[in-house]
Amino acid sequence: MNRTEVKILLEQQAEESYKKFNDKIIPGVKNAIGVRMAALKELAKGIAKVDYDEYFQEVNGTDFENIYYEEIMLWGLTIGYIKESAEEKLKYVEAFIPKINNWAVCDSFCAGLKFTQKNKELVWQFIQPYLKDNREFYIRFGVVMLMDYFIDEEHIETNLDLLENINHEGYYVKMAVAWAISVCFVKYPEVTGKFFEKEHNKMDDFTFNKAIQKIRESYRVSKEDKDYLNQLKRKKAVHN
After folding, report:
1. Which residues constitute the domain of residue 47?
2. C-alpha span between 183 and 69 (Å, rounded)
3. CA-CA distance, 77 to 72, in Å (whole number)?
4. What is the pLDDT of residues 123-177, one digit of tens each?
5. Is-contact 190 153, C-beta < 8 A?
6. How far is it, in rounded angstroms, from Cα 77 to Cα 111?
7. Structure confidence by residue, pLDDT tens digits, 61-95
8. pTM, whole model, 2 decimals?
9. 150 and 63 in one domain?
């Protein structure tokens, strides 16, 4: 399937009202036409069954100023559906990551990489360099992958250490780290509670407090835990 064919299919699904909604919640996104996620997923499943390489190459070779936001989203979603070995899929993942420039593409892409569940050690090793990168959406990719697939008994202690040591001023990194730590608390409250109590916790004030806020917004956390964590919030946190 080539890019011209895909563009026609996307344009047939476009909704102006949904475009306006998307523009509000995804700052900085250009060239969105308003295709809903359900429609994008169905199209991605179809592309994954044909010659997806042709589409990937065409999109990759197109200047970002002349490409629909939905084309990038579709590229990422299609990777999640293609039938390849884990090693081959990771090559597609690696090629796609530099194209991520907003939280929506990043998070939807990660959520679709469900092959991770059967290849956890391989993918765990793959995401480690991204957690230590200095580019905002490279790090967010690593953090969201960690959150989606690795908050388990085996990784919880390592996760908290990795998250604590991420030091980046990007807003979308800080929010992802806070979100991941909140999920850690929901699943492992005792271990994560001790993380918040550490005397020399390295997290910046904004991320530390944002994590507590997200935990307190959860319906899966007791009132007692919420009240206790509220007492641990740092004073005068400023996000520059």
Report:
1. 1-112
2. 29
3. 9
4. 999 999 999 999 999 999 999 999 999 999 999 999 999 999 999 999 999 999 9
5. no
6. 9
7. 888 878 999 999 999 999 999 999 999 999 999 99
8. 0.94
9. no
